[in-house]
Design a protein that fits this description.
Length: about 180
């Protein structure tokens, strides 16, 4: 533990440095990051181009379909009227698709993981709310698990392993120096 002088004559003990993650843990988190990013990116790509998995080609975004109508228009839960009213609105479609693309790309590339955690938690939180009451568990479903995983990845700085986080951080520091 080190001692830090906060003001002349006033000394405080600094918190000990955190234990570094083992290489195997860093690699496991990198795999989780890339896989979770693939989930977000796939949702974007399938809804945009309609590869016939969750979205048939005739309902693809590029074919004039709405990426939110299929899900939001068929809800049966407590908040179905609230979320159903949002189905097919252009601002909802664009926000959803840009969010899925941004979160997925950030995770796969390993950059801006805190921003991805915020955006991904917003998306997953709204999807969790739209599904209430849950079918298999009264509180927890995959949306909450994904949101928690996003925060674990951000806290562990998982973009530094097999990602571009180090480069991203150095670019961010350069930009901040130019502004200040």
């Amino acid at each position: 533990m080190t001692v830090v002088e906060t003001r002349p004559g006033l000394r405080a003990a600094a918190a000990p440095a955190p234990e570094p993650l083992a290489a195997s843990a860093r690699r496991a988190l990198a795999v989780l990051r890339i896989l979770l990013g693939s989930v977000f990116l796939w949702a974007f790509v399938d809804k945009a181009f309609g590869f016939g998995f969750a979205t048939p080609p005739e309902r693809a975004w590029i074919a004039g379909g709405s990426p939110t109508t299929g899900y939001l228009g068929n809800l049966e839960g407590t908040l179905a009227p609230v979320f159903g009213a949002l189905a097919g609105q252009a601002w909802v479609d664009v926000s959803f698709m840009l969010g899925m693309l941004a979160v997925g790309a950030a995770l796969v590339l390993g950059i801006a993981l805190r921003a991805a955690a915020v955006g991904g938690t917003l998306i997953m939180g709204l999807m969790w709310l739209s599904a209430l009451p849950l079918a298999n568990n009264p509180l927890v479903d995959e949306h909450l698990i994904y949101a928690a995983a996003l925060w674990v990845l951000a806290a562990a700085r998982a973009g530094r392993t097999w990602g571009l986080a180090r480069t991203w951080e150095s670019l961010a520091h350069r930009r901040l120096r130019l502004l200040g």
